[in-house]
Design goal:
Number of helices: 21
Order of helices and strands: HHHHHHHHHHHHHHHHHEHEEEEHEHHEE
Radius of gyration: 25 Å
Oligomer: single chain
Helix content: 55-70%
Structural class: alpha/beta
Strand content: 5-15%
Distance between the termini: 89 Å
Length: about 500
């Protein structure tokens, strides 16, 4: 009997070491995919916001913009970007250095989801499957290559949940303190971190409930309450914003159906009674608390279609989807040895997630629809090569003009959506909020300025949709001649330059 126990222990160690070796290879592959040809793709609109603020931080010590306003979105991301600009001279045509922090946070997330999942469910096979999907997820890789705070936000949110769970297991206050610090850093990475404050408060005031016998007896009631409340409040939000003329909730649902249908179904499958096992009730309720309530906050926080706001929730969807398939495998193949079942589960999970995975390195990753990635690099390169000293640049993205050319010139007033109120705060004393560029308010203003000057007007797909009268005018007036057009390797996005 003793010999059998020793042999069994050695076999477990062998499997354990094997999983860790595979995990190490996953980590290397994940890092490689995130860093490969990192500077090849052009900087895009949102990266420009961060880098513009970072440049001002290098100059002034804090992100005060030329308009006199302080850039308050993602302080941590802004300061990390400023640090890279201090260490390496910034070249907008080769933005390797400022993108590196996102690479490290994205790679670190692979480590965190592995240990967080293992801590939750006490199964390294399941943890390995979650880490595998995170490492090769095209969406995860794409956002781990941008000068934005989403990769850092995801990292600190999983760290928050890891420390909260450790606090639940040990009742040691140090984990609660570390969780609060993680939440602070998440909120400093991106303002969306604030979406997790209500869930954190609820957990810290009711964590003893997770060990209550009532949880096990009425687990279906509690999880149903969370889900039904989410649906009910979403319906109210939908009704309110429908009155305002915005159908963004329908857009989010369409996005889930088109882009994340696999993980949506996998997440919802966790509520099937046989999968929602008594043994894992508190784990599922814990993750649901930090998945559904923040989703409601996102709907309220962003009354516009910004699919990237769902991105911080994606690791939790990966975990729940993987768990659902893991449990399903164990139910269907209950007569097979548990180690073989775990191996089969890992294979099924990876096959299930395969459509959303990317294994070959590339220099460009398409973000979700609504995150335009036109080729600013080549367009501004063309202006530098062919333009004259006295040319002016008119663009819906004055901050990108400043980033590439060192001056903002003129901002063509454009809303990021079709809600007029969305322009509030974008204009400060007749100048653009980000770089202090003079504002062209309307078509008549554009006609007057182009009559008095020479230069370029930059247009793209977003401008074509948001300012159709301006786009039609550029193509109809004989004074404007299209001299450049570039299609980005993304969804129907392009850049056009009109000489006048």
């Amino acid at each position: 009997m003793a010999d059998i126990q020793v042999a069994s222990h050695k076999m477990k160690l062998k499997f354990s070491h094997g999983i860790l070796i595979v995990f190490g290879l996953l980590l290397c592959a994940g890092f490689f995919l995130r860093v490969w040809k990192l500077s090849e793709s052009s900087l895009w609109v949102d990266e420009g916001y961060t880098l513009n603020a970072a440049q001002e931080t290098v100059i002034h010590g804090y992100p005060i913009l030329p308009s006199g306003k302080v850039y308050t979105s993602g302080f941590l991301t802004t300061y990390l970007s400023a640090l890279t600009l201090k260490i390496v001279s910034f070249d907008p045509y080769f933005p390797l250095a400022p993108r590196l922090p996102a690479v490290f946070f994205g790679t670190g997330l692979i480590v965190l989801v592995f240990f967080f999942t293992e801590t939750l469910f006490k199964n390294r096979y399941l943890a390995l499957a979650v880490a595998f999907i995170t490492a090769f997820s095209q969406w995860e890789i794409a956002w781990s290559r941008q000068v934005r705070g989403y990769a850092a936000l995801s990292f600190f949110l999983i760290l928050l949940l890891f420390f909260l769970w450790r606090f639940l297991e040990t009742a040691k206050k140090k984990y609660a303190i570390l969780a609060i610090f993680s939440l602070v850093f998440a909120s400093l990475s991106h303002n969306l971190g604030l979406a997790f404050i209500p869930s954190t408060i609820i957990f810290l005031f009711s964590y003893r409930f997770f060990d209550s016998p009532l949880l096990l007896k009425r687990r279906a009631v509690y999880i149903s309450t969370i889900v039904i409340s989410t649906i009910a409040v979403s319906a109210l939000i939908y009704y309110y914003f429908s009155i305002q003329g915005s159908n963004f909730i329908s857009n989010y649902l369409d996005f889930f159906a088109d882009e994340l249908i696999i993980f949506l179904l996998g997440t919802l499958s966790v509520f099937i009674p046989d999968i929602f096992q008594k043994k894992y009730a508190k784990q599922i309720i814990f993750i649901s608390l930090f998945l559904f309530l923040p989703f409601l906050y996102i709907l309220i926080y962003a009354p516009t279609t910004q699919f990237r706001y769902i991105f911080p929730l994606f690791p939790l969807m990966i975990i729940l989807t993987s768990f659902s398939l893991w449990r399903l495998t164990h139910i269907v193949f209950s007569d097979i040895h548990h180690a073989k079942r775990d191996t089969m589960a890992v294979v099924f999970i990876i096959l299930f997630a395969l459509p959303g995975l990317s294994f070959l390195p590339r220099g460009f990753y398409e973000l979700e629809n609504g995150s335009p990635q036109p080729n600013f690099k080549d367009a501004f390169g063309f202006i530098q090569k062919t333009g004259n000293k006295n040319d002016i640049i008119i663009s819906p993205y004055a901050h990108m003009t400043k980033l590439f050319l060192g001056r903002g010139d003129y901002w063509l007033k454009t809303s990021i959506n079709r809600i007029p109120n969305n322009l509030k705060g974008s204009v400060i004393n007749g100048r653009d909020y980000y770089v202090g560029a003079p504002v062209i308010e309307d078509l008549e203003n554009l006609k007057r300025i182009t009559n008095e000057n020479h230069g370029f007007v930059l247009a793209n797909f977003t401008m074509k949709v948001r300012l159709p009268d301006v786009y039609t005018f550029l193509n109809a007036d004989y004074r404007f001649r299209m001299v450049y057009k570039s299609f980005a390797p993304s969804r129907s996005d392009f850049i056009e330059l009109y000489r006048f």
